[in-house]
Design a protein that fits this description.
formyl-coa transferase, domain 3, 7-stranded mixed β-sheet, 14% strand, globular
Length: 820
């Protein structure tokens, strides 16, 4: 192994036993995080092995576990499972609700048999509602939620496009991690476990930073705002000023670059660096970057792309060193991303010597502490490699448990009730990680500058940009640049359990709220750095934006894999720029959300570790590192790795039985890739002769005759409406959904999703009663809450009063412009 951890520090989850019955990517990524954090994860596999072993990156996904092979339909092996669960702290399943009930994994049965067990259930659609027993394939969820529509400009034309990054699985995985850690924290007091539920639908809903409220406003006031739901119009012309700030272009020697010049001063520096500032004095470009005419936008966009193409990659790298106000990232593949200088500097890439595969390169743990990974990554086990020792463990003496009255006085309503987090950050990627904890009952105090977090004003409608990230928080607006403001901060720190710090390297130290300074005030503080690149290193001082992180990590190229380096002509250049832009900048799913989910998990891990007496100093998670984690099934590399799947040239899917088809009134997504799903599909389509062709008689024939099968199914699906197909096929337990053709952020606010439980009603001081994304978890004993956002400084007086300031002192702070 190339890297090592601090062997003197216990791993945060050391001693916890996790039984992993999951068979999906979401389950594997959840238990990978737990194993990376030191838990003893027992992978229960069928005799033929976990389905995750079919993933190219399975050695990364299944690392650091012990494996036991069990037949869960055999009585003797069920006794072994019972023995394991009797000794476990956590169970993780990905079964559909009907199977959970059949196997006795209901909340009531588990509580009676294993009272201290925290059982995490990760499903595609939740355990209640009209879609709860639909197949849980990732693509079905993203198609029905509108993600395929939101990302439609991955390819030319207006049709929805297949999305390759497993956003929904990663979202559900970290929802489960957060639910598990919250339930374990609650168990410290109650002594009881409980069932924790998460699902892919709300998991994918967590990514969007602000468009949810933008869509709400557009539908409330359709005549007040003009909707520009796509980056480019039907003729390929830019529709937004962001096209200039977030330019995608190639260098003279053919390397694609993603620029990120979002702030006005950075955009000005960008234009000056390109030598185009003088041209903007021409009245023709009045109002730049807001240009009202589509042809003008297209002309200026082309000019900028041409200017970028006048310099080689080496020349641009020299530019970035010389001019810190201009920055760009190369578009890297998932494998290439692990060569990123910042990841290498932070030791976020490890090579594990596997006894069968040889060297296996993969991302290190998502969370680092003390400048190192949380644990030494161990090779993935062979199928049933630890069966003998685990059978012995299962039959050993059961631990004694003391009955606990779960209704005793003092048991808290919310799993994180009593936990207080102080947030020092701006925008979305880090702060939304703290927002997730408010739904679990944590108190999150957000310190804002006097003008407010920049995200509040990022959209034309006041407060719409920040409404999602501010849900459930208390806002205090103070000037930390003043001695009086820092005194307020220090008093708040004394009463907090954790601090979340999200600013670029060096900023916290300059202002005096770095970890060392704040721990002098509160030695028991959990302090998490949730930053873009890192706390030090070659890129640490660079601004981090979702598009640049998507490019650097391989996320953008994964979603847009057909763009070649070095386009041969102008049309290929412009087409590639549009596609790569869609790969990393569509708000519905992008790097900001990936980082936020990782931040929530890291913050809870630190809090739970502290409850166990384990202090994690220099706790760090980064946007770049989190984005490599979502791709671990693709960026884990070794000799002989099987080919990574790639979307077809039309962006319809991965093969004839896992793709979109045009219906009579739109599109459906068919998901029936497994051999045992063919017969139900044939039964459902029995009236159509095309499906009975001998060329499709067995899996190998279907593979060889894939084009013919696509043609046959295309002909069939064109005969009925999409909702009819969804009803017909799901009745036969075949994976099929109508593909939503509206933005994901609005789709999930509609009545169907609300009635299915994926949104909750909240009341905001700005938006009155509205629908927001439901909490990512539900619990069998504990409650969750779904609060609305807060206004700037809404809680300033109350918080100042709470920490000892009287009315006269508060008035003095306002008079001196220290507080708002």
């Amino acid at each position: 192994m190339t890297d090592s951890t601090d062997s003197t520090r216990p791993a945060p989850l050391a001693g916890l036993v996790v039984v992993d019955l999951s068979t999906t990517l979401a389950g594997a990524q959840a238990t990978q995080f737990l194993a990376d954090s030191g838990a003893d994860v027992i992978l229960v596999e069928a005799p033929e092995g976990s389905p995750m072993r079919q993933e190219p990156g399975w050695p990364g996904l299944l690392r650091s576990r012990r494996s036991i092979s069990l037949d869960l339909d055999a009585g003797a092996d069920l006794d072994v499972l019972d023995g394991l669960l009797s000794r476990a702290d956590v169970l993780v399943t990905t079964m559909r609700p009907a199977e959970l009930e059949r196997r006795g994994f209901t909340a009531e049965a588990l509580a009676a048999r294993y009272p201290r067990l925290v059982a995490a259930t990760i499903t595609g659609w939740g355990t209640q509602g009209p879609w709860s027993n639909y197949k849980s394939y990732e693509a079905l969820v993203m198609a029905k939620c509108g993600i395929f529509h939101s990302k439609r400009q991955l390819a030319p034309g207006p049709d929805p496009t297949y999305v390759s990054v497993p956003y929904a699985s990663f979202g559900a995985a970290h929802s489960a991690v957060q639910g598990i850690l919250a339930a374990l924290i609650e168990r410290e007091q109650s002594g009881l476990g409980q069932v924790v539920e998460s699902n892919l639908v709300t998991g994918v809903g967590a990514y969007d930073p602000y468009n949810w409220f933008y869509e709400m406003i557009l539908h409330r006031y359709p005549d007040a705002f003009e909707s520009q739901v796509a980056a480019f119009d039907d003729q390929g012309r830019p529709q937004s000023r962001l096209m200039f700030a977030l330019l995608v272009a190639t260098t003279k020697d053919g390397t694609w670059l993603q620029f990120s010049q979002s702030a006005p001063r950075l955009l000005q520096a960008w234009v000056e660096e390109l030598g185009m500032a003088e041209e903007l004095t021409d009245p023709k470009w009045a109002g730049f970057p807001v240009l009202p005419d589509a042809d003008l936008r297209f002309e200026w966009w082309n000019k900028m792309i041409s200017k970028v193409g006048e310099r080689t990659l080496a020349e641009w790298e020299s530019t970035f060193e010389r001019n810190p106000n201009v920055a760009a990232e190369q578009f890297r593949s998932p494998d290439e991303a692990l060569d990123h200088p910042q990841l290498v500097h932070e030791r976020r890439v490890v090579t594990v010597d596997d006894p069968n595969l040889g060297p296996v390169r993969q991302p290190s743990t998502l969370v680092h502490a003390g400048g190192n990974p949380l644990t030494d990554v161990r090779p993935a086990p062979g199928i049933g490699e630890h069966s003998d020792e685990l059978r012995a463990f299962a039959s050993s003496a059961r631990p004694e448990t003391t009955p606990v009255d779960g209704n005793a006085d003092g048991v808290k309503k919310y799993p994180l009730e009593g936990v207080t987090v102080l947030e020092l950050g701006a925008m979305y990627a880090g702060p939304y990680g703290a927002t997730l904890l408010t739904d679990l009952g944590a108190r999150v105090i957000k310190i804002e500058p006097l003008g407010g977090d920049l995200i509040r004003g990022i959209m034309a409608f006041p407060e719409a940009g920040g409404a999602k990230v501010l849900q459930g928080k208390e806002s205090i607006a103070i000037d930390l640049g003043t001695e009086e403001g820092r005194d307020v901060l220090h008093r708040l720190v004394k009463q907090c359990d954790a601090v979340l710090q999200c600013f670029r390297a060096g900023a916290s130290r300059r202002i005096g709220f770095d970890e060392a300074s704040l721990r002098k005030i509160n030695p028991d503080l959990v302090y998490l750095n949730a930053v873009g690149y890192g706390v030090d290193g070659p890129y640490a001082s660079r601004p981090a934006y979702a598009p640049s992180m998507g490019a650097a990590s391989g996320v953008s190229v994964t979603d847009s894999p057909l763009v070649r380096q070095g386009p041969e002509d102008r049309e290929e250049l412009l087409t590639g720029a549009r596609s790569l832009y869609a790969g990393g900048t569509v708000p519905a799913v992008q790097a900001d959300g990936v980082a936020a989910l990782g931040t929530g998990s890291a913050l809870l891990l630190g809090i739970y570790a502290k409850r166990r007496g384990i202090v994690l100093a220099d706790l760090v998670t980064t946007m770049l590192a989190s984005c490599t984690q979502i791709l671990i099934s693709r960026n884990t590399s070794y000799a002989g790795r099987q080919a990574v799947t790639r979307v077809d040239d039309e962006f319809r899917g991965l093969g004839p039985l896992y793709r979109m088809y045009r219906a009579a009134d739109g599109w459906v997504f068919l998901a029936a890739p497994e051999p045992d799903e063919w017969a139900p599909l044939v039964r459902a389509l029995a009236e159509y002769d095309g499906i009975k062709d001998e060329r499709f008689a067995d899996p190998e024939s279907r593979r060889v005759n894939g084009a013919a099968l696509v043609a046959a199914l295309s002909s069939i699906f064109g005969t009925r409406k999409k909702d009819q197909w969804e009803s017909l096929l799901t009745a036969q337990d075949v994976g099929c959904v109508a593909v939503a053709q509206e933005t994901a952020e609005w789709c999930m606010q509609t009545d169907d999703f609300h009635n299915a439980g994926y949104t909750a009603t909240a009341v905001s001081p700005v938006f009155d009663e509205h629908r927001r994304l439901a909490p990512l978890n539900s619990f069998s004993r504990s409650d969750v809450k779904a609060d609305a956002g807060c206004t700037l400084g809404e809680h300033t007086d109350a918080l100042l009063n709470e920490i000892g300031y009287g009315a006269a002192q508060i008035a003095a702070l306002r008079d001196k412009s220290v507080a708002v």
